[in-house]
Structures are given as structure tokens and as C-alpha cells.
Amino acid sequence: MDEDPIPVSRAVHSGTAKLLPDIDREGGWLLTVDGTPQSYVDLRDATHLEFEYARRVAHVLDLAAPPEHPLDITHLGGGALTLPRYAAATRPGSRQRVADTDAALLDFVQEHLPLPPASGIALSDQDARDFLDGSPAASADVAVADVYGGMHVPPHLTTVSYACAVSRVLREQGICVLNVADAAPFRFAASQLATFGTVFGHLCLVAEPSVLRGRRFGNIVLVASHTPFPVDALARRAASDAFPARVVHGAALERLIGGAVPVEDGDEVPSPEPPDGAFTVG
After folding, report:
1. Is residue 31 a contact partner of residue 80, using CB atoms and an 8 Å limit?
2. Bridge partners (DSSP) listed for residue 39
3. Secondary structure of 236-259 in the HEC alphabet?
4. How far is Cα 238 from Cα 258, in angstroms, rounded to an integer?
5. pTM (2 d.p.)
6. How many Cβ atoms are within 10 Å of 250's Cβ, its own excluded?
């Protein structure tokens, strides 16, 4: 009989990483770094996405091409590789590249939560911007940016030059998906929309109504593309989730952006500090 899974921990570059087994779901594991939840992985079912924001990113991946059509996906930020595992399961044959500065964290995750054989997922311990600058132009269908240094998006990954670097690696119909965290009046999210709006012609965001109404701090998924994205289909999927979310686009999005200006190199600032308890576990 297999032994019951037990928590494991290791010092990594970004802090103390822990993998905690889910006592209510066999095969489920939660990754935390310094007590902050980073990723949830189900080793038995890669399509099970515990975190709401991950499901919203997955909706974008599902709508990026016909079902099961392989994609070339660039992931900026690795965590426990939840979304690469999801794409490998739902779109067999996809080629995925993951960049994360924390080599020790990547090793920790691979040791305890190994990727399936022939997953098509390649890992690189590089800074996201350096990785983009070294990547071939027009080499990706989707870029997923979920990069946090501790509680913050690194400032150098918030600028117009960064948005241009993302755009360069995407194909003409490519899609960029960013996970940011913010609260009303959404100064950081608005600045990121203004920044990516200088490069991409089509924008929308996905978030829970309680976040949009200013009741709490939370994840906001931004979607940017050069060609129109099926926002109506995304809205239907987001509304049908266990924790429904809204898609904001068009005039409503312009109102949210308001007078925010694009972030240029030299003007960047970290993303906002989450309030105590916003993203922690015991």
C-alpha cells in the first residue's frame, strides 16, 4: 500500500517553498512560497484547476484555437507548472517553453511533482525579459505572463518595452494573457492596460464582480491581442464558473483605464502590496 503523502519543503531562491498534499483530493498538491499560495496541481487530472484565476487563463487557452489543436505557448513564470500541464493534457502535441528565474524552485517541483513523459514542456531558469529577448520572433501562439517576485510583479516586467518584447515573440494572431493583482481604483491594472494598449489593438480583462466593485483585492486576468478575441465566448465561460467572473471590454474598459498612461522604462514601480491575509494560508 502506498504511504500517505506528506508535506515537503525546501529553501529556494524566492524563499521557503512548501508542497502540501490536499487531504480532500487524492493527487492534489498546493505549492506555497513563504506562506503565499503559488500553484495547485492535480497529478491525476491536469485539467482540474483549483485557483479561479488559473481557470480564467485556461478559458483563454481553450479559445485560442479549435479543440485539441496544438499550440506553441510561452509561459513567463513557472510555479508548479499548472497551466503547462493543463495545455499538455488538453492540446496534445503542443510545444511549451517555461521561463522562471528560480532554478531551485523548478528543481523542487520537478522532483516531487514530475511532468508526464513526452509532455512537450521545456524549462529554462531565466528572467522573463531575457528569455523573451533571446526567443525567435513570431515563435508563439500564446504568451502567459504570471511572474511574481514575492508579492509583486517585478517592475521591469510592467513597461512598454516589455510589452513590445512579448509582442515580438507572438505570431500575428497571437494572444498575451497576464495575471495581475489589484484593487479599486485599479491604478496598477489600468497602467498595464494602457501599457499593453500601446502595442496591442484589442484588450479585455476578467475578474470577479467583488473585485471589480472594489470590495476586495484579487486577481485580474488581462488579455491582449492584435486581432479580435472572442470576448463573448470568454464571458460565457467565465460566467459559468463556480465563482463567476465578468469580462470587461470596449467602453467599460476605457472607463476603467481612465487617465492611466503607459509605463515607460525609468517610470516603472512594483505592483501593489496585497493586504494582510489576501493570499496566505495557515
Report:
1. yes
2. 31
3. HHHHCCCCCCEEECHHHHHHHHCC
4. 24
5. 0.95
6. 10
Higher pLDDT, 62 or 274: 62
Determine the residue type at 163.
A
Spatial separation of the C-alpha atoms in residues 100 and 83, rounded to whole Å: 14
Range 159-173 burial, b when 16+ CB lie within 10 A, else e: bbebbebbbbbbeee
3-class secondary structure per residue, the chain: CCCCCCCEEEEECCEEEEEEECCCCCCEEEEEECCEEEEEEECCCCCCCCCHHHHHHHHHHHHCCCCCCCCEEEEECCCCCHHHHHHHHHCCCCEEEEECCCHHHHHHHHHHCCCCCCCCEEEECCCHHHHHHCCCCCCEEEEEECCCECCECCHHHCCHHHHHHHHHHEEEEEEEEEEEEECCCCHHHHHHHHHHHCCCCEEEEEECHHHHCCCCCEEEEEEEECCCCCHHHHHHHHHCCCCCCEEECHHHHHHHHCCCCCCCCCCCCCCCCCCCCCCCCC
The total of other beta-carbon atoms located within 10 Å of residue 48's CB is: 17
127 Cα distance to chain centroid? 15
Joined grid coordinates for residue 270: 512594483
Asked whether the predicted pLDDT for residue 280 surpasses 60, the reply is no
Which position has the grid cell 473585485? 211
The pLDDT value given to residue 277: 59
Distance CA 108, CA 106 (A): 5
Cα–Cα distances in angstroms (integers) from residue 276 to residues 34, 102, 273, in the given order: 13, 25, 9
Name residue 234's amino acid. Answer: L
